[in-house]
Design brief:
Radius of gyration: 67 Å
Shape: rod-shaped
Number of strands: 33
Oligomer: single chain
Distance between the termini: 264 Å
Number of helices: 7
Strand order of the largest sheet: 1-2-3-13-12-4
Length: about 650
């Protein structure tokens, strides 16, 4: 009996010791790990086995929400909560299997390297709760939001990472495109088609009213250049642009192209410049978050947790190419817009739109027309004067060879340029009538004039030649009066007598004639000056002053001569003393006869001066003058007085 009691006491004591040993972690239970109901036991002898994280005390035991350092180069996350910690020694020579789980894969890819315990606790919760991954939990998994206060920050991170994963997780689509950079239309239509009536209209398909060209291709709102726009877009499974991903670019056919681009919240663009006509191609690739995670099982030990690790990044690629040809454009300016007939002109032209060092051949044609050219239209009377060729021309400004303007040329002339099209070059054909390409040689009229004198009036006959056929011209004829014969000069002189304007229309030969209205011709000289007013087609012309053919002369009128004097009447009285010869004279009384004139009623005649008075400034006249008549009359009166005295004396003697 005593022996039985001792055995019972020993057995009870042993059981007590074993129980205490088990509670403090001693005894055989240490090799097998804690009972399942107690959860994961921290390995205090291997502190480096744990990354950032937070311990959770569940009813079933402790569990680690955080990362493990099972592998030296990446974080690991348990998927069997409550089992043994996944120490590195249990995973020697282990192999991994992949499980597709894009959101968890994205989260681990983005945040596995974080040093934040809250972030790592959030990732651990995602791994435990991921239904795409197999589990053997001994402690039920929970969301950080359902855990104690220690997990408040982890809960926020958990929600943030889940939302981001939903938005940015794969599978991904990398999309790149190349579009030509267009040159917008300019004010001057250098590259627009000519009118339909033009025999050499635009060679390439012209746009129709429906917005498409003749070959049914979409109408381009501009001209392609040597540049292309590269657009890069990286989309997640949800269709959202994935930012901050480096994209590697491999480009051919471009110069100084970038090698990388970084994606953004919107598609990213850059401009590529082609190095030569031909194919411009781009290959783009990017490393993105994987769509799967790696599951790794232990290779030794019992009741050891399995873990998942981030998978290696995926790669996405895309290609784009664009055929580019040189799209030349030529802007020009004639070397002289008022050329001289018989001299030469050149085409100053600038070429653009050629890709890289590409060169072309430019054909220059000089056209002439007698009618004003309209921009974009080839006139019916347009004729080619000559052409020159500029070979191996690249982008930049150049000068063409010389073309001679004909000696007899009058009218308009302009250049057009042509670049032939080929596989590498889009055809260019300039239009007619570009203002900067156009020069003008005006018609140079002259006038032959003849001044006409008819009696006391004069007028001018004018014949104009050299006008543009069919053109209208204004003529001004001015008459000048001078006292002395004019000498021909360019500057007019004298008194302006009249100004007459005439509007004439030239015939098909450029001729026109007018006759001025007669004007009164004064004494002296009248000379005419004819002016042809300049216009948009005819040059101005003015005749010289004093041209002999335009000058007439009217001399002063001569004063008529004095008629001959009538016969002298005083010649008869001297004969009277002889008529009465019978009367005797009384000699003794003759001395008294001189006194008789004093008694005569006839006033004495004033003696005539020996020197005649100065003549008046009149022309000399012939015949009897006033003084001569007075002298003669005086002589007659003296004679009559003497006769009367003699007669009266003889009567007294008789008595």
């Amino acid at each position: 009996m005593t022996t039985f009691r001792l055995a019972s006491l020993r057995t009870a004591l042993l059981l007590t010791v074993l129980t205490v040993a088990s509670l403090i972690g001693l005894g055989p239970a240490m090799a097998a790990g804690p009972p399942a109901s107690l959860g994961e036991v921290p390995v205090l002898t291997a502190p480096d086995a744990y990354g950032p994280g937070i311990w959770h005390h569940a009813k079933q035991g402790k569990t680690w929400y955080g990362s493990y350092r099972t592998f030296p180069d990446t974080s690991a996350y348990c998927i069997d909560a409550g089992k043994k910690s996944p120490l590195p020694k249990y995973f020697k020579d282990s192999k991994a299997d992949k499980v597709t789980s894009p959101r968890t894969a994205w989260a681990l890819h983005e945040y596995a390297g974080s040093k934040s315990k809250d972030v790592q606790a959030a990732l651990s919760a995602m791994a435990r709760l991921d239904k795409a991954v197999p589990h053997d939990h001994k402690v039920p998994p929970q969301k950080p939001a359902d855990l104690d206060k220690k997990f408040t920050a982890a809960a926020k991170k958990h929600l943030t990472i889940l939302a981001e994963a939903k938005k940015f997780a794969g599978p991904y689509t990398l999309d790149i495109s190349l579009e030509p950079v267009l040159r917008m239309p300019v004010l001057e239509p250098h590259a627009t088609p000519e009118s339909a009536a033009s025999p050499d209209s635009w060679a390439s398909g012209s746009a129709t009213d429906d917005g498409k060209s003749d070959d049914d291709s979409p109408k381009l709102l501009g001209t392609p250049t040597d540049e292309a726009t590269l657009t890069v877009s990286l989309l997640s499974a949800s269709g959202v642009q994935v930012p901050d991903v480096a994209v590697t670019l491999k480009t051919s056919g471009a110069t100084k192209a970038p090698t990388t681009l970084t994606t953004g919240k919107d598609p990213v663009t850059t401009t590529l410049q082609a190095s030569a006509p031909g194919t411009l191609s781009v290959t783009a690739s990017a490393k993105v978050a994987p769509q799967s995670v790696r599951i790794v099982e232990p290779t030794s030990g019992t009741r050891v947790q399995r873990v998942i690790t981030p998978d290696t990044p995926d790669s996405v690629t895309d290609k784009a190419s664009l055929e580019l040809s040189s799209q030349p454009k030529v802007t020009t300016e004639i070397s002289d817009q008022t050329p001289t007939p018989g001299e030469t002109v050149t085409d100053e032209f600038t070429v653009s739109g050629l890709i890289g060092d590409h060169t072309v051949t430019v054909e220059h044609t000089l056209w002439q027309t007698a009618t004003a050219p309209k921009q974009g239209t080839k006139n019916d009377d347009a004729r080619a004067i000559g052409s020159v060729t500029s070979k191996d021309v690249g982008n930049g400004t150049h000068t063409s060879g010389e073309v001679t303007v004909p000696e007899d040329f009058r009218g308009w002339l302009y250049f057009t340029e042509t670049i032939a099209g080929d596989k590498a070059t889009k055809e260019w054909k300039g239009i007619h009538g570009q203002p900067r390409e156009t020069g003008f040689v005006p018609w140079t009229p002259t006038a032959d004039t003849e001044a006409v004198l008819q009696g006391t009036s004069t007028h001018d006959e004018v014949a104009v030649t050299g006008l543009r056929p069919g053109s209208e011209a204004v003529l001004t004829v001015t008459a000048y009066h001078v006292e002395t014969e004019p000498e021909q000069s360019e500057e007019p002189d004298g008194t302006e007598l009249s100004v007459q304007d005439f509007t004439v229309n030239a015939d098909e030969e450029g001729h026109a004639e007018i006759s001025t209205e007669p004007i009164e011709m004064p004494v002296g000289w009248v000379t005419y000056v004819t002016t042809i007013e300049g216009s948009d087609v005819n040059a101005e012309w003015t005749s010289d002053w004093g041209v002999p053919a335009e000058t007439v002369h009217r001399p002063a009128e001569e004063t008529p001569s004095t008629p001959p004097a009538p016969p002298e009447t005083p010649s008869a009285p001297p004969e009277q003393p002889n008529s009465p010869p019978e009367q005797p004279s009384s000699p003794p009384e003759q001395p008294e006869q001189p006194e008789a004139p004093e008694k005569s009623a006839t006033p004495p005649v004033e003696p005539v001066a020996e020197t005649p008075a100065a003549p008046t400034p009149e022309l000399p006249r012939t015949g009897t003058t006033g003084n001569g008549m007075l002298i003669g009359l005086g002589i007659v009166l003296v004679g009559l007085g003497t006769t009367i005295l003699l007669i009266s004396g003889s009567r007294r003697d008789r008595e």
